[in-house]
Structures are given as structure tokens and as C-alpha cells.
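Hi L.,

As promised, Carbohydrate ABC transporter permease:
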Amino acid sequence: MSTATATKSKRDFHQITRGWNVVFNVIAALFSLLCVFPFLFVTIISFTDEKVLASNGYRIWPEKWSFGAYEYIFKTGDTLLRSYGVTILVTVVGTIVSLLMIALYAYAVSRKSFAYRRFFSLFAVFTMLFNGGMIPTYIVVTQLLHLKDSVWSLILPLAMNAFYIMILRTFYITGVPDAIIESGKIDGAGEFKIFIRLVLPLSLPGLATIGLFSTLGYWNDWFNALLYIDDPNKVPLQSMLMRIESSMQFIQQNSLNSAVSLEALSSMPQDTARMAMVVLATLPIIFAYPFFQRYFVQGLTVGSVKE
């Protein structure tokens, strides 16, 4: 093959590759738009006037904008802000506690020198398949640990997750070479110092992945508050929004029997308020993704390799 023919073939190959790259980028952009559009549409509806929405239906660009839904929700005053504070506290502290416990457990069962490695691995897998149930858990939290109306009742039940342990265990096995640990032992470092100084810096992708999962779990949790929290000052955001939703449904169901409820129903945004709740519950957690994005894909990829 002559040099001119080879150059022409190479040029044609680059043109075909560039064309397919454009096609794939367009497909990725359309897929990204499909993922983002539902949240944008919900946000637009939350700023739509309730009466216009009832008469004209859902539209991408509403005829009349309104902050009525957010004004209705924020009529709770400091209660909603306090719920935000409780949720942020539970999410931050819970994620730290969860990462610490899961990282230590996963590191122990990942070491071949640990005598009870197989037993504790099977124990973690067993809890993925079977659990004590809601009533025993409630008894342990309220009567044994005495955590009723405590913020810790929102943190500890979600702190350990066997699935996350298995992910991080596999990450330790595939992502942390044994030679590094052996070099630490040669230098006279103990197990805890090796874990802090050598293993954790190499495990940032896996820790970031588990941290993101834990953060989402704590932020979206409402069921534990329903079980353990009666103090209105300790109600998290998701539970508070559910209570607002329940009060709206109560007013709607009893509007025919009460003049006061009928008056409240006429001035109450219904669909737009529900959309506003979604925005208030989702928007803050979106800002957590940039902090984990750097390590997220790598953590999922490396942690999925079999032992």
C-alpha cells in the first residue's frame, strides 16, 4: 500500500470517527435532557398560578407565574427552617458515622489475615436477606437504647448497610495492593495507622460512592421520624413535608362539612404546593453531587470487580 493510499485511509477513518462522535454526543445530550426535564417541569409547575393550572392544565410555559405555593408552605414559619436544620444535621453526622463504621467493618473482612473474615462476611450477607422486623427494631431503639425523640434514632438505624459493606470490601481487595499494607508493617505501623495513613487515601473513590448513597438515604428518610419522633422541634424535612401534605388532604376531604375548611380550600394551592414540596426536598441535595462526582464513577467501576 502506497503512502498516499495509507494517508487517505487514515483521513477517512478520522472523518468517520468524528461523525460517530457527533452522533453519540447528540444522543448523550438528548438522554441528559430527558433526565433533567422532569425536575425542570416540576419546578415550573411549582411557580404556576393554581387557578391557571386548574383551568389550562400543565404547560411548559405557564400563562401566569405565582409564588403562592411557596408562600403557603413557608407559612409554617420557623418550623420548616428548623426541619431543614434537623435534616442537615442528621445527614452530615449520619454520613460521617456511617462511613466510619462501614469503612472499618469492610476493611476487617477484606484482610486475608483476619481469622474471622469469612464469618463476618457471611453475617453481613445474612442481614441483607433477613432482618429482625419493624417491631423488634422499634423495641431496641425505644426501650433498650432509649432513643425515643432523639436525633440518634434517625442516625443509628441507617448507619450500617450490608450492601455498602460488600461494595467497599471489594474495593479494598481490588484497589488497595497488599504490597502497600506490607510496606506499612515493615515500617512498624500498626493496623489502625495503616488504615488511616495508607488505606483511606487510596479508598477515596469507594468512600465517596458509599458517602453519596448514605447522604441520599439520610436526606430522603421519613419513616424513622414517623416511628421515633414526636417532638415537633425534631421533625426532619421529609416528615414535615408529609405532614403538610396530610393536612392539605384533610382539608380537601372535609371541605364539604366545614365552612372554615371550604374557605381554606379556596385559597390553598394544591397541585402547585405538591410540586413545590418536591423542589424544596430535592434542590438542596443536588448540590451534594459535585463534591462526589470526581470519585463516583471510579468507585462504582472498581468496586464492582469480583474478587
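The chain has two domains: 3-46, 68-303.

Thanks again for sending the construct details.

K.
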